[in-house]
C-alpha cells in the first residue's frame, strides 16, 4: 500500500463520522478497499464492540428521519435491504404512527377527498407507494377519526 493510502479503519471511521451506516452498508462501501472479506468482518466487529457502528442505532435514526414521509411497510423493506434484522426493525418502528403519518402525507399532497373513482385510485396508489397498508389508506380516504 502506498503511504498516502487511507487505512480501512480510517475509511470506516470517516464514513461513520458523517452518518450512521448499517453493517451491510459499511461492508459494501469498504469492500473495494479491503484485501479480504475477513479483514472487513474483523474491522466491523471491532467497530461494533466500540459502539462506533450499531445496527439498532442506524435503524432508530433511519426510522426517525424517514418516518414522517413513509409508512412502516416501506421503512421495514428499506431496512431489510440494508441488512437490518427483523427484531431490530420492529423495535425501531414501534413508535411509528402510520395513520397520523398517512394523514399528514395525504393532506400535503391532495388536501381534499377524491372527487371520483379515478381520483380515489390515484390517491390510494400514492399512499400505497409510500408504504401504507390498505386499512390505513381506507381510513384516511374515509376521513375516519383516530379513535374507532
TrEMBL record:
It comes from the Bacteria. Residues 97-141 form the RecX third three-helical domain. It holds the Pfam family RecX_HTH2. InterPro entries: RecX_HTH_2nd, RecX_HTH_3rd, Regulatory_RecX, WH-like_DNA-bd_sf. It is found in: Cytoplasm. Keywords: Cytoplasm. Residues 54-93 form the RecX second three-helical domain. PANTHER family: REGULATORY PROTEIN RECX FAMILY PROTEIN. Belongs to the RecX family. Modulates RecA activity. This is Regulatory protein RecX. It comes from Vogesella alkaliphila. The gene is recX.
Amino acid at each position: 500500500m502506498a503511504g498516502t493510502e487511507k487505512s480501512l479503519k480510517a475509511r470506516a471511521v470517516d464514513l461513520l463520522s458523517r452518518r450512521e451506516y448499517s453493517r451491510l452498508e459499511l461492508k459494501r462501501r469498504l469492500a473495494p478497499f479491503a484485501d479480504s472479506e475477513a479483514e472487513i468482518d474483523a474491522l466491523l466487529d471491532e467497530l461494533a464492540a466500540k459502539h462506533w457502528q450499531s445496527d439498532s442505532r442506524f435503524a432508530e435514526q433511519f426510522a426517525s428521519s424517514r418516518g414522517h414521509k413513509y409508512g412502516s411497510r416501506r421503512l421495514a423493506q428499506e431496512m431489510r435491504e440494508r441488512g437490518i434484522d427483523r427484531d431490530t426493525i420492529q423495535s425501531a418502528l414501534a413508535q411509528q404512527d402510520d395513520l397520523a403519518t398517512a394523514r399528514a402525507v395525504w393532506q400535503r399532497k391532495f388536501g381534499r377527498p377524491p372527487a371520483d373513482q379515478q381520483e380515489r385510485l390515484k390517491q390510494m396508489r400514492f399512499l400505497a407507494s409510500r408504504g401504507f397498508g390498505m386499512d390505513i389508506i381506507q381510513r384516511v380516504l374515509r376521513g375516519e377519526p383516530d379513535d374507532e
